[in-house]
Automatic annotation (TrEMBL):
Belongs to the PET117 family. It comes from Ceriporiopsis subvermispora (strain B). Residues 72-88 have a biased composition (Polar residues). Keywords: Mitochondrion, Transit peptide. One of its GO terms (biological process) is mitochondrial respiratory chain complex IV assembly. Residues 37-88 are annotated as: Disordered. One of its GO terms (cellular component) is mitochondrion. Residues 37-66 have a biased composition (Basic and acidic residues). The keyword Glycoprotein does not apply. InterPro entries: Pet117. Pfam families: PET117. It is found in: Mitochondrion. Signal peptide: none annotated. This is Cytochrome c oxidase assembly protein.
Amino acid sequence: MSRVAKITFASSIILSAGIVWGVHYMQQQERETMYQGVLRDDERRREKMRQREEDLRESQRKRALYERFQPVSGSVPPQQVTDSETEG
């Protein structure tokens, strides 16, 4: 093998190895970025649920306050309705 052929062969091996390493590195970075997105989505979902629960508690507190000053007739919370009331 001539010297030029050896240099060409070695440089093509090095270039190929570099390309393979680069592709694997980019895939690893993309996988990490996608995982971070999942974590952000989970955090947003937890924050939204926390906010909704807080809004529900605030709404229940306001309703109790309003009903204390102005009772609503015929208003029965769903957990207090019995089967006999719904049949009749």
